[in-house]
Design goal:
The chain is α/β, with parallel strands linked by helices. The chain has a single domain, classed as Glucose Oxidase, domain 1 (3-Layer(bba) Sandwich). It is built from 5 helices and 11 strands, in the order αββαββαβαββββββα. Helix 1 packs across helix 5 and helix 3 runs parallel beside helix 4. The chain is globular. It starts with 11 loop residues before the first helix and ends in a 6-residue tail after the last helix. Pfam families: RraA-like.
């Protein structure tokens, strides 16, 4: 298990820069402002619009893991809502990333569970399966395997392969230092007449 930086410690945009701008999940957005997450991926691959696999995942997911779900990008059925988020909060899950839809956005924000999704819809899910747990998936066009580092903030979600976490964190911190120097230089600029 890696030592992942805590949620909000590193910006997703700079993490992506440190990975040559790879690893950003296309179209996956936070459902409420200020949502942040950081932790190892716990993966689920489910039939679009069906959340039976998510409920099964809660039987084995560990504290701090981020539930990452390939729901086929479906926007017609919400894979989670308030009740699933309550379960995630009770189990101290690190957050939820859905290549699919969610609902109960106000309640999710009130619970403080960081949820990132492709869409929002009030329509509830099917609960019949099939699904796959703890295997390789893709979310927003990015491959994800169990244990990969998942990081999210207001800009979206990035996935860092588990074997690259240490290097990417170090490179991200170097980039942040360079950005601080550029900000200071920008503040010294003088307008021309």
């Amino acid at each position: 298990m890696h030592d992942y930086p805590p949620p909000g410690a590193l910006p997703v945009a700079t993490v992506s820069d440190a990975m040559d701008r790879f690893g950003v999940a296309d179209g996956i957005r936070p459902l409420w402002p200020g949502a942040v997450l950081s932790g190892p991926a716990f993966t689920v691959w489910t039939r679009p619009g069906d959340n039976k696999g998510l409920h099964a995942a809660f039987e084995t997911i560990r504290r701090g893991e981020v539930l990452v779900v390939n729901g086929g990008g479906d926007a017609t059925r919400a894979l989670i809502g308030e009740l699933v988020a309550q379960k995630a909060k009770a189990l101290e899950v690190g957050g939820i990333v859905l290549d699919g839809a969610a609902r109960d956005v106000v309640e999710l924000a009130q619970l403080g569970v960081p949820v990132f999704a492709r869409a929002v819809t009030p329509a509830g899910p099917w609960k019949t399966g099939p699904y796959r747990i703890a295997g390789p998936i893709a979310v927003g066009g990015v491959p994800v395997t169990p244990g990969d580092w998942v990081i999210g903030d207001d800009d979206g979600v990035a996935i860092v392969p588990a074997g690259q976490v240490g290097d990417v964190v170090a490179d991200t911190r170097r980039l942040i230092e360079g950005e601080a120097e550029r900000r200071a230089a920008n503040q010294r600029l003088v307008p021309r007449d």
